[in-house]
Amino acid sequence: MRKRILKLTGLLFAMTVMTVFSAFFTNQRNNASVLDSTFDLNSIPADVSVGTLDALESTSVVFDEAFAVHVDTSESELNDITSELNEMPILESDILRRWYYSSEEAKKYGTPERWIFMEAGAESVWISPDALDAFEYADTISLCDSTGGTFVYSCKDSAQVSCQHIDQSACQCTQGSVWKEYQGCIDQNDRGSFVVVTATDLDSQFYYALKNNKKLNTPEEWIWSENAENSEKSAWHDPNYSLH
User: Could you write out the DSSP letters of every residue in 89-102?
Assistant: First the structure.
């Protein structure tokens, strides 16, 4: 980026210098036009030939053409650099996450060359090849973490260094809760049945429970909030409901 800014500054300086020279030669021609009406051929020094005058005029024309080409080239380069400067730069969080949502055309400036584009409609991404596994399981990992579980990669279907020799990548819930697709780690009672959210819970917009004791059919938008002073007052609740 610094090199491009320096290049832009250099081009602007060059254009300024060329503009000054152009103004100088234009002024000289204007002066020549004024003198032309009162010019006395007899005043031309004997040692100045017609060929010399033609050469001077030819040199002026060449300068004009060269200047025009320079300006055209400079403007083109300036447009390219300006376009790049206007591109949204990749964020540090994108680098750490190893992917970001984007269309193929809206690739961020500074995106590593080895990153690839994955078409997925509104959820299309530019992503590092090393993060394909994490992206594939992103929703499951998020749900697993939010309900007190730990996501474990299987070496059979993942290239993750931390993979384990299990049948498939999955969320491992803590004792007393079991994974339920699209709901997370759900609490079980002593009989091995899921604990289900009640009408009272829904009317109250919350229920007290630990993170890994989420009830079956708890509204998807509900979140868990920890009470650091009293864990028994930690609760699953509607995000618009204040526990305090």
Answer: BPPHHHHHHTEEE-
> Per-residue confidence at 130, pLDDT binned at 50, 70, 90?
confident
**Full 3-state SS string of 113-129:** CCCEEECCHHHCEEECH
- Name the β-bridge partners of 171: 151
Residue 78 CB contacts under 8 Å (≥ 6 apart), including other chains:
8, 11, 12
The pTM of the full predicted model, rounded to 2 decimals, is 0.53
**Phi, psi (degrees; rounded to nearest 5) at 25:** -70, -35
Which amino acid is residue 105, in one-letter code?
Answer: E
Q: What is the pLDDT of residue 37?
A: 46
Burial class (CB in 10 A: 0-12, 13-18, 19+), 213: buried
CB neighbourhood size of 31 (10 A) = 10
